[in-house]
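Following up on my earlier thread - several people asked me to post the actual chain instead of describing it. Fair enough. Here it is, all 815 residues.
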Amino acid sequence: MTPHTLEVLEFFRIAEIIAGYCKSEEARAQCLQKRPLQDAVEITAAKELGRDILSFLQADEPLPIKNLPPLASVLKQLHTVGVCLTVEELYAAGLLALQAGELKAWAIKQKRTESAACTLIELIPPLPQTEQAVFSFIDKNGALREIPSLTAIRKKMQRIEADIEKTMRSYCTDESTKGMLQTPTPVLRNGRQVIAVRSNFKGRIKGIIHEYSQSGQSFYLEPESIVLRNNELMRAQAEYEQELHRLLVSISAKLAEEAEALEQAYDLVLELDCAAAAARWAYTENGVFVPDTGNSQYFYLQAARHPLLGAAAVPIDLKLAPEERILIITGPNTGGKTVSLKTAALFVLLNQTGWPVLAGEETRLPVFRYVGCAIGDEQSLDRSLSTFSAYMRTVGELLEAADEESLILLDELGSGTDPQEGGALAMAILDELFTRRSRVFVTSHHGVLKNYAYRKSGCVNASVSFDEATLRPSYRILMGIPGESRAVDIAEKNGLSPDVIRAARAYMADSSADAAALIKGLMEKHEQLAVFEREKDEMEKALREKQRRFDLNALKLRQKEQVLRSQGYKRLNDLFEQKRNEIENLVREIQEGELTHEKTSKLKQFFADFGQTLAEEQTDIRNEQEELSALQQALRNREQEQGHGKSANGMSVNGVSVAGASINEALAEGMEVLIPHLHRRGVIIRKEKKNWLVAVDTVKMTFPADKLEPLNSSAIAPLRTPQVVVEAELHKESRPELELRLLGMRLEEAEKHLQNQLDLALMHNMQEFSIVHGKGNGVLQTMVQEKLAAAPYVAEFFFARPEHGGTGKTIVRLR
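Reply from S.P.:
Thanks for posting it. Predicted structure:
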């Protein structure tokens, strides 16, 4: 990537924006020095770190990175023997040690084993000696602590200063001397306190004259009684400086022992600061780190926004398959062709720097070894180069560098010369680039290039759309359709004479009416196709939701069946247990004495009552069976209307088998059979080679034919409850999460996980769980709220308390 390319594509301006999010000055400088990488492994590592830090921001758990003073030159000094750092430099090193400790404590708290940020933080060496040495001498605010040796000297200096001040005050207040003074207060000269005496009183006060005023009317005198005290003060100050120097050298020596660890920690903290700056930019501007595509040359921009356009940016979509090497964009002037080219190439550079792009999550970008561009007017007067000559010189340089791993941008290819020759030259250049397998993005107004794209395999037409009503471009990219230049319409809109416009339209009618009509028809078809695709997407979404509700009803039916079956078994067990106790009591009474008529009548009455009770229980269970059968019939009718197939949550209902199904002499699909060796019943689903797939309760098993026995209607127990067989893609051992984390997921993936959680919660009778979706730009939060509001089995949902996650976490309670 040449500096010229980076400058033209405005890479440096984006780097300045991202660098502005850094906390430290040296991190900002380091961020500005970053350039696009070519090694796929390095690119992946840089993006993974930024993506990981972004996920912490979205979870409202940002890295505790703080502003650090510049330390690079300070740390280099530690390799010098006997180095003496200043108090400010020691304080800066101490702040680095504190920053390292805070980051390591934060990483331990996160408990993320696969976090790239936490892994990098683990590499930061601990700096206990530096932290202890610095902050035993300096407090956390950078001020010196009370060191005994320094404190004693400071107190001595304060006493001397108090004596000097007292003596000097006496000169200013004594009636015999204050009239001699030019000013009533002492002043400092050369670090010594003196008094300003009028020149006409020279010799009246004994002392040392330091200097005269410019007017000569006064001189500065250090009284003889003060000279000795000033000398003592200066000796005390020298003593203080010597002691401070000794302490600084001692502490600097301790830091020198950890010099390499300090440098390593500083480099890692700066790296984290730079990565965090990119993540903060992505968080603020709703950007994404593009997922890796391996060696794939698939190129897709989804809702891409140029960072420098701000709110005025119109999102563009641009898609090229790996075999599609050349994209030719045509359309009206000011329609956004050049901006689209620049956006695509700029995003390639940002992606290869490890930075995010302002686009949708589906965006995919290949890795290029070389990005070159010929954009804008590069006319050179000092080289006697015209616009066309300068453009061709640039194109020649691009051809020399282009290969299969290159991205080449050619703006207004073939312009600036005779249209026929320019078109021919443009096609020849594209042929050469196609031979070299380069990926090429071209803008042009040449109609011949539109035909070239149709005839050339691996070449794709595209255009910027134009609003017929307002005669203004809409800045959207239409893939597969060439565009009209609409020069006459734009000229008319900008005030060109009506006569000139009529004449231009007359010339156009003679030469290109058919081609214009063809392009216009293609654009209308494209718009119709877009409307159809939107309608189809809406229908598919509605059908998926309808199928999901259908599958949920099937799940509820299965649960109801299990409840009814367990209730029926329990009632019968309770009944038989009660009757067994009563029989034991009757037998005991008979055995205790003679068999009398009263005892015989009592026994007969017991069996009569038991028979009546059993009949009542059978009637109740039969009524429940009929109710369940009605529900199953309604489910079958709906299944016939909708058809079989996979639903949105991965579940399908294969069939419903009720006792009393038709019986054939041979085994057949849907037949109820007995599995003798298991003492269980089942329903045949289908034949698989030589075996039969049988649904036994909610489990599907395979058996050979000799292990199955057909059941006739008389062999079916009267109390058998209907059986619903549900085939689910949910894993048998899957269980709902107490806390479902959606952070870092795409919207569709998060929605699928949420629906899966709701289904599992229903299956396992879970009453309450939480969803961590973060705050971010609110996309995940909105999806969760809408999903829960539409679910009839959700009783209530609300945000967690502030100390438990606040609006980044939702509590769900089911009915």
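The CA atoms of residues 209 and 221 lie 4 Å apart. That should answer part of your original question.
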